[in-house]
Predict the structure of Enoyl reductase (ER) domain-containing protein.
Amino acid sequence: MEVTNRYITIKTSIDGAPKESDFEIKVAVLPLKVEPGTNTIIVKNLYVSIDPYQVNRIKSFSSSQTAINFTAGVTPGTAFDAYGVGKVVVSGNPEFEEGDLVVGFITWGDYTVVEPGVMLRKCDSMGLPLSYQVGILGFSGLTAYVGLFDICKPKKGEKMFVSAASGSVGNLVGQYAKLFGCYVVGSTGSNKKVALLKEKLGFDDAFNYKEETDLKATLKRYFPDGIDIYFDNVGAKMQEAEVANMKTFGRVVVCSLISEYTDAGKRAAMDMLDVVYKRIKIQGFLTPDHMSMYQDFLQKTYDHLHAGEIQVLEDISSRVENIPSAFIGLFRGDNIGKKIVQIAEE
Ligand code: NAP
């Protein structure tokens, strides 16, 4: 038996903001069989994660491409690998059987041929929607948890600021920090998102950064006594304003710099005298370095979900052909919460 496999690829390297015309859908015939003894499996993709970091993989150069395997460059014309959930349809690997649900690195396509060595495991949905595996119980949730608890190391009552706070990582950082006992303010790109943060997710306050003309003054308004912790998802001017409002011995965790991903000209020029005299600690991190926290993260998040203490924000589109627009939308702030594309019904 054979199937038609459609998958997304890029025509050429892309430096700057991606456009739909930079992508194409390739169509290939995929025989549903594997050679015995190869340990290869074929997965029918169900949900795929849409993540900003993919933009660094399609540039002609980015330091991300040599950092870790997950963020290696994507060669034009080849399939993108991405985190997701699927169902095994053919298995040449004794660890997997036809019908098993799996989570790990699949492709932005209908099917994935998974060779040995690729990070993929059987998926236990724990009675929760399968899509949660891609967001709150996947790398977004783990990133929020690791960044907050392993890097920021908050103390109860500390004042925290989160940028891109209605996004997949940001909303969870804010929710974990509130549950822990911090005072949390978030920035986001629309008044509708501001209302969501305050009314549904329990942030102490939030503002629309697109309506602010002087970010240093804005942060002074929300934190008259200064900020203990900044969870940075955006970089650039927000990072400069934030460092200017930091308390002595404050911590900045740099999760991402999305506003610089597509425009290096926006690179932050923070006042390094502030960094020295306020003894500010600034640390970047990559979640895959912290997999030892996975079980702890999973148990705590599962407990919060069962207790109804944490809200799940998902933004799900469907079909392979809509992956490029879903991806491009991340850089326009189209998404609210975790952006996912459902490829097929469970
Ligand atoms: P996301 O926040 O769900 O989506 C991106 C959001 O960023 C958009 O919704 C938009 O929201 C905001 N944004 C886009 N362009 C912007 C700009 N120029 N200025 C300010 N805000 C802008 O994405 P995510 O999956 O949760 O990831 C958040 C960040 O964490 C990403 O940049 C990602 O690369 C990073 N990340 C890092 C690690 C790690 O290991 N360090 C792991 C996972 C993710 P609004 O404009 O409406 O606020």
